Amino acid sequence: MIHFKNVYYSYPTRDVPTINGITLDIERGDFVLVSGPTGCGKTTLVKMLNGIIPHLSKGKFCGELSILGRDVCSSSMEELTEEVGLIFQSPDDQIISNTVEEEIAFGLENLGFNSRQITQRVDWALKKTNIVNLKERDTKELSGGQKQRVVIASQIAMQPKILVFDEPLSQLDPKGAKEVMECIVDLNKEGITVIIIEHRVADIARYVNKVLLLDKGRVAYYGDVKESFKKAFLIYKQLGVQIPEEIKLSLGLGIKEITFFYEKLKSAFENKKRKQHLPFCEQKLRVFTNHSASLNKIISLWEIDFEYVKEKPVLAGLTLDFYEGQNVALMGANGSGKSTLISLIAGINKASNGVVELNGQKVNFIKNKQRASLVGLLIQNPDLMLFCETVEKELLFGPEHKRIKHNEAVLRMNNILENLGLNEYINDAPFALSVGQRLRTALGAVLTLQPSVLLLDEPTTGQNQENIVKVMKTLKGLSFIKSIIFCTHDIYTAVHFADRIIVLNSGQVAFDGRAKDVFNDLELMKKNSLSVPAPVRLSKECGCQKTFLTAEELIKSFLNTESAT
After folding, report:
1. What CA–CA distance (Å, rounded) separates 212 from 200?
2. Residue 345 sits in the same domain as residue 220
3. pTM (2 decimals)?
4. pLDDT tens digits for range 150-193
């Protein structure tokens, strides 16, 4: 289906190739997971498959690349897009029509299908993606998972033989992610070849048959996904790529055949079959609980009501206080009100009822320039925050417009560049960077203003596990930040880097407490679309005295118990 032979590609602004001599074949019906560190070339690779590169790029391409026997360089974009459907990370970037039906029909209309064919294919695509009930819905009113399935439906309506996904789960809660993955799996079973880029390996690996690990534009590993965790375990670790907890438990419990099935893991654990030391003993992430959290109230929300559409409340009577020294994770399903909450704190939106105060002042009465020094906001889509020619100019823009002395602005910029690992990209255009690098650039632009409160909406987007740890550690170490409030679906990031977790459900507080206590009620977690890690379930269901978040902690305790026995 897809044949790469010594393929190289360099962007106009880069001296080093982003794709550096890739040779591999993808067979008909394969389901391939592509992963690797931020900026390793994943998105660049898949853009080649439908001709965006080289046809719409000014960079340098060389080597052989064919799709279904067609040479990519000599084939037209129209020919390639009929065979390859590409779904980007944010469905909002691809949806252009008012209704679901119109959106699915759009591509078919442009390909010249008649009205009867369009109606047949739209109905077929709706059934395949299980969204028949959304046919007449307004696309703006859909959830993230629904939007993603609409985009998939619009692509499969054109009946491509290959579907390519660029981080389709990054903005979805566990429920939405599961729905989208079930849809993709069904399409693959029907014969469509699927290639999916994703940092959330744990959510994808159970479904695919192959994995491609990239490092600096080269193939670090390509082959069977289950075998990869045995043969390339160290490569995963070296690249900072997530290894599913189920895999670590499989290896640690001595299960001969690696499994993602919880019941097999539970049986192995209960029977105590594991006899050898862990092959993956590694230092666990430190929980950054801030014991010095003061009682100095920094943010207060009282009886907040908010709605985007009349009579459809997003927040209803919400009352919350945030304190200096606290780092808070906001969690809950898509649409539960997390992003809305931080937009109110930042003063971007205004509550229809109630009061939002920052340092004792009503947020909407604080002048914009003053507010920028008090509150820094990183929104979910970093592309909406980037507008300068280079990374350097992005980070200097805020300080310069606040009339901060140039030497001081440069000092701030250099410190942030170093902390966020962006030094080598200082002269690059932001949109020439990967999604993860763009997110860190947008974050850097916020940090050079040195806000005392930092608001982050899905800060793990586009980041591999190693980068998540580095970024969160960096933020914890910046002395000017008094409090961090971040929205996330990543339970590991929440527990390791927050000392307080607030779970929202339909605009109201479902849980508010210490990070380590969120696991006390598994039903609450499932009800609010929070993923329950396998080690947590094992801890709870197998009668452990302590709840373990990671496989390392659980197996280490198991080993100690065995030794004592």
Report:
1. 14
2. no
3. 0.84
4. 999 999 999 999 999 998 887 788 888 888 888 899 999 999 99
